[in-house]
Amino acid sequence: MSEFIIATNNKNKVIEIERILSPLGITAVTAGERGIDLGDVVEDGDSFAANAYIKAKHAFDLCHTPVIADDSGLCVDALGGRPGIFSARYGGEDTSYLDKIGLLLEEMKDVPDSERTAHFSCAVCCILDESTVIEVEGRCEGEIAHAPSGDGGFGYDPIFTVNGKSFASLSAEEKDERSHRGNALRMLREKLMQRSM
User: Fold this and answer.
1) 119-145 core/surface letters (b: 16 or more CB in 10 A; e: else)
2) What's the pLDDT tens digit per position in 22-41?
3) pTM (2 d.p.)
4) Residue 104 is part of a domain; what is its CATH number?
5) Of these residues, 71, 77, 113, 176, which one is catalytic?
6) How far apart are CA 103 and CA 89, in angstroms?
7) What is the band of 197 on the pLDDT scale with cuts at 50, 70, 90?
8) Cα gap 159→145, rounded to integer Å
9) Rounded distance between C-alpha atoms, residue 46 and residue 85, angstroms
10) Is the confidence at residue 109, as pLDDT, over 60?
């Protein structure tokens, strides 16, 4: 294996992806690190998988080298599955995650513990060449806490809990083991391994 372009500007995602795929000898780099400007991509798909493909295809058409893109988000049962595919834009395009978390907790202030179930979902699209597209999707079940905790992770990690611990309070290895992205990337790793056998 070799270098893969990761179609994101989120350095945390790049680190997670490389951590899980590095046993295959994959080095994860952003397009920017290779001097390629991906510009803004209109993510107008109706699912995580559709948006992951849109991002991957856009990057592949510009880079002409293997690319990986993911689209992920938080789906809260008490909010009818919101924010879902709009997780990054929840509360507005330029809203910080601190504010997004505040908005979500405000929406859920009257929701009892028994109804605070949620899941993270992550769709990953890997385009190796013109005719090879690999798509996988992982998810992780959990609950929404009443307040943020932990100083690790990113995004909604401080309020998403599994067995009483927020994703932001887990070590990188613990998070990889349980997370939606970890689950999806292990599936991708398996499929890439099968191709190289």
Assistant:
1) bbbbbbbbbbeeeeebbbbbbbebbbb
2) 988 899 999 889 888 888 88
3) 0.91
4) 3.90.950.10
5) 71
6) 12
7) low
8) 5
9) 8
10) yes
172 backbone dihedrals φ, ψ, rounded to 5°: -55, -40
Which amino acid appears at position 110 of this protein?
A: D
Burial bucket for residue 56 (CB in 10 Å: 0-12, 13-18, 19+): buried
Task: State the CB neighbour count (10 A cutoff) for residue 6.
Answer: 26
71 among known catalytic residues: yes
Distance CA 81, CA 76 (A): 5
C-alpha closest to that of 126 among 112, 140, 118, 137: 137
Per-residue pLDDT of 119-149, as tens digits, reads 999 999 999 999 999 999 999 999 999 999 9
**Residue 47: φ, ψ to 5°:** -155, 165
For residue 154, give the amino acid letter. Answer: F
Q: At 71, list the tokens.
A: 């689209």
The structural domain count of the chain equals: 1
Q: How far apart are the first and last CA of the chain?
A: 12
> Is residue 49 a contact partner of residue 125, using CB atoms and an 8 Å limit?
yes
Domain housing 140 = 3-196
Strand order in the sheet with 132-144: 27-30, 3-6, 67-76, 117-129, 132-144, 160-162, 165-166
At residue 1, does pLDDT exceed 70?
Answer: no
